[in-house]
Structures are given as C-alpha cells and as structure tokens.
Amino acid sequence: MAKLLEGKTALILGVANKWSLAYAIAQAFRREGAGLLLTYQGERVKETVEELGAELGAAHVFECDVTKEDDLVRIADTLKSQGRLDTVVHSIAFANREDLSRPFVDTSREGYLLAQEVSAYSLVAVARSTAPLMTGGGAILTLTYLGSSRVVPNYNVMGAAKASLEAAVRYLAHDLGPSRIRVNAISAGPVKTASARGIKDFSKVLEAVAGHAPLRRNVEPAEVADAAVFLASDLGRGVTGDVLFVDAGFHIMGL
Questions:
Q1: How far apart are CA 127 and CA 140, in angstroms?
Q2: How confident is the model at residue 226 (pLDDT cuts 50, 70, 90)?
Q3: What is the pLDDT of residues 29-83, one digit of tens each?
Q4: Residue 80 lies in a domain
Q5: Residue 1, domain member (yes or no)
Q6: For every residue of 175-199, which 3-state class applies, written as one string?
Q7: Long-range contacts of 43-51 (CB under 8 A, 24+ apart)
Q8: Nearest to residue 128, comparing CAs of 168, 72, 70, 67?
Q9: Is residue 173 part of a domain?
Q10: For residues 153-173, average pLDDT
Q11: Strand residue runs (E) in the chain
Q12: Which of 18, 217, 221, 250 lies 20 to 30 angstroms, CA to CA, from 205?
C-alpha cells in the first residue's frame, strides 16, 4: 500500500517532547513516508529535540525562535539547500502562566501581546518565510482549540490568541491559494501535553469532555496526527481555510 506522504518533505515547528502533538504528527508523517525537518527554540530544549529528531529519522534539526525575524530568515535560507518543501506544521503557542490563571479582564497588556505574537502572528511570519520554498504547492497546518470561539474556564488569554490564529488561517488561505498552498487548522480536543499542565484545573476539562462528547471519551494524539496526515496529503487537496475538529465530537454539543 502506497504511503500518503511518500516523497514529501515536512517542516515541523514545536516538537518539544514525546507528549507534544507535534511529536505525534512527526511520527505519523514519518510512518507515511515524509522526510522530516524539525526546529527547536533555545539551548534548553536543543538536546531533547535533537534526540527526538534522531529517533524520528529527521534530516535536520534547526534552531528557530519565531519571535526573531533573523531566525526566520536564516531558516528559510537553510531550507533552500534541502530541496523541496511540501508541508509546514505550526505547533507553537505560549502565554504567561499568570495570564492563564487570572480572570481574562485582568490580563496584562504585555501578556496579551506576547500570547498574540507567539501563538498567532508567528503563523503569519512562518508562512511568509516558507511559502516561497513551496514551489510545487503544499500545505501549512496549525493547531487550535475550542477556546477560540467558546469560553473555556482558565483558557483566558490563549482563547483570544487562538481566535486570532484561526482568522490568520483564513486570510493566509486566501493569499496563498493561487500558489496552490493550502492553509488549515486542526482543533484538537484536550490532550495531556506538557503545555496543558499550565492550565488551571485541566483535569476537570478532560473529565467534562469525556462525559459529554458524543464518543464519551477524549481524543488521542495519534488521532490528531492522522488528521494532519490527511490535510498534508493529496487526500486533502480540496480543503483550505478550514478548521477541522478532532475532539470526539465535543464541539457540536450545546449542553
């Protein structure tokens, strides 16, 4: 059976550890035959990501801080030597812990702008740097959450950032469509990742979803990863500017 991503090259930003959704996506992409390029931010995670990259058979692991324009320019220059680029996975988000734990109305100006820059604007910056390298068309994917359009207790400033991210997906899909580059987001249900631990009472969110979702359970990282494979492959060639929910159906529920 042919592999869905055979011969394609994917750049994945955000593989921080084995529990991250980006890591699950990288595993699924490798399974389907894609060549992998990974990034890390800062020396603190360099060794971990390099070890994961070796385990995944990644061709290269680069340093890239998406808040630094020089890093984005440098990674674009580096990628030119790698040949074709078909897919970019943006799995990056950040907010100050205190801005997640306090009421949204008390969000600091600095905290709000930081969450927007790292979690939303970075997609625009990454797309601008990588789209010129996708000469044969391709797919750009990002990860979002239901808190973008509904109030999820303690998600706070990140909800506003994810709303901006989803708007960016639509506008980028419009701009890059003529170049045959598709831009989509996956809205994953809550998953036990390291970053999720920063959300107060996250275990209660998991319990609520498992109790009310039509499938009566939470999603697994592998299910999110398989949706990413679909969007990155030719099977998803007619889908762009969309948000694909992979949340055991929770988003359809009213009560």
A1: 8
A2: very high
A3: 999 999 999 999 888 889 999 999 999 999 999 999 999 999 999 888 888 877 7
A4: yes
A5: no
A6: HHHHHCEEEEEEEECCCCCCHHHHC
A7: 45/16, 48/16, 48/17, 49/15, 49/16
A8: 72
A9: yes
A10: 96
A11: 9-13, 35-40, 60-63, 87-90, 138-144, 181-188, 243-246
A12: 18
Q: Assess contact for 229 and 30: CB atoms under 8 A.
A: no
Is 23 catalytic? The answer is no
Q: Phi first, then psi: give them for residue 246, nearest 5 degrees.
A: -125, 80
Q: Which domain holds residue 34?
A: 9-247
DSSP β-bridge partners for residue 184: 141
Q: How buried is 1 (Cβ within 10 angstroms: 0-12 exposed, 13-18 middle, 19+ buried)?
A: exposed
Tokens of 71: 């890093």
The one catalytic residue in 23, 40, 112, 155 is: 155
Residues counted in the chain: 255
Q: Which residue has the tokens 């996956």?
A: 186
Task: Tell me how far apart the alpha carbons of residues 25 and 224 are, in angstroms, rounded to a whole number.
Answer: 7
Integer Cα distance of 92 and 138 in angstroms? 20
Task: Let me know if residue 122 belongs to a domain.
Answer: yes
- Give the CATH number, domain containing residue 73: 3.40.50.720
Residue 173 and residue 127 in contact, taking contact as beta carbons nearer than 8 Å? no
Specify whether 40 is catalytic.
no
| Amino acid identity for residue 120 in this structure | A
Distance CA 146, CA 139 (A): 22
Q: Which of 14-18, 163-167, 245-249 comes out lowest in average pLDDT? A: 14-18
Structure tokens at 29: 């992409």
Catalytic choice (23, 40, 112, 145): 145
Nearest to 185 by CA among 154, 207, 161, 212: 161
